[in-house]
Amino acid sequence: MRMDWLEQENLNSVTRTVKHQKLEKFMNLTENLYPNLVRVFFTNLSFEDDVMYSHTKGVDMVITPAVKNTSRIMVKGNTNSLEDFNKNEFFRSYLRNTYATMRGYHVGGLSMNPRILAFIMVWQLTPRGYNHAMLIEEDLVLMYCIMHRFKVNWINVIREHMSKTRKLVDYRISYVVLVSKFLEHFKVDLEDELIEVVKPHNEITCATLHKIGLKKGNDEYCIYRAEEEKGGQ
After folding, report:
1. SS3 letters for 73-119?
2. Is 6 buried (19+), middle (13-18) or exposed (0-12) by CB count in 10 A?
3. What is the pTM of this model?
4. What are phi and psi of 152, to 5 degrees?
5. Which residues pair with 214 in a beta bridge?
6. What is the mean pLDDT of residues 181-209?
7. How many CA atoms lie within 13 A of 113 on its CB side?
8. Is the distance from CB of 3 to CB of 18 less than 8 angstroms?
9. How far apart are CA 167 and CA 185, in angstroms?
10. Torsion of CA 14, 20, 25, 29, to 10 degrees
11. Is 200 helix (H, G, I), strand (E, B) or coil?
12. Which residues, at least 6 apart from 185, have a Cβ–Cβ distance to it below 8 Å?
């Protein structure tokens, strides 16, 4: 989901919330993808302290927070205490019907802006390969920080998520565009490699939001059904 598309669709509350996290450049990343080399990158990926290491086509890559910032992908946020965080109270506070019986943390019961934010998180910020309609505790913690405007250390979030991608079968290969930027940054030989681009069907559009129960009328979005009422996904 691109930031300029959010602005174009007048989803102003979501736009302001995401901008506060300094995620514009990350969400607007496009251009060439190198799917085969991205797989090699993850196969050879290792971690030591705050540093990521990989090796692709004879090139050793040492990826530090400084390299990530040099690529102008994200900025490092502040660390905040979450002593007052209660996942049940937080989730219920953003339900359309705060008196509804909770059956887990299903996004279908959420009001519009939290529902869109949850969609962005599980498909784009911390993508995974399973049950996108049901939030896990990690999702709720990040949503809490974003909604309450706590600056998140997104470099650490991405690093931890890449580690899970490397270890867990439920986590599909993620951050393909970002890793492709790393390959270009370290001048990996890209000649004769398979190249793909971000295609329209990979981007989040009005049709995508319609699938999660939102519709547009009079230049505004509204909820026309709750996902949980039709059984979710």
Report:
1. CCCCCCCCCCCCCCHHHHHHHCECCCCCCCCCCEHHHECHHHHHHHH
2. buried
3. 0.78
4. -95, 140
5. 223
6. 79
7. 14
8. yes
9. 25
10. -30
11. helix
12. 67, 70, 71
Q: Which tokens go with 100?
A: 């509804």
Tokens of 81: 């205490």
- Dihedral angle, C-alpha 163, 168, 173, 174, nearest 10 °: -50
- The position carrying tokens 């505790």 is 137
The single-letter code of the amino acid at 18 is: V
Tokens of 119: 């969609």
pLDDT at 30 over 90: no
- What pLDDT sits at residue 164? 82
Q: Is 7 helix (H, G, I), strand (E, B) or coil?
A: helix
Strand, helix or coil for residue 70 = helix
Look at the chain and count its residues.
Answer: 233
- Determine the Cα–Cα distance for residues 109 and 232; give it in Å rounded to an integer: 10
C-alpha 152/C-alpha 154 separation (Å) is 6
Q: Per DSSP, which regions of 21-64 are E strands?
A: 32-33, 46-48, 51-56, 59-63
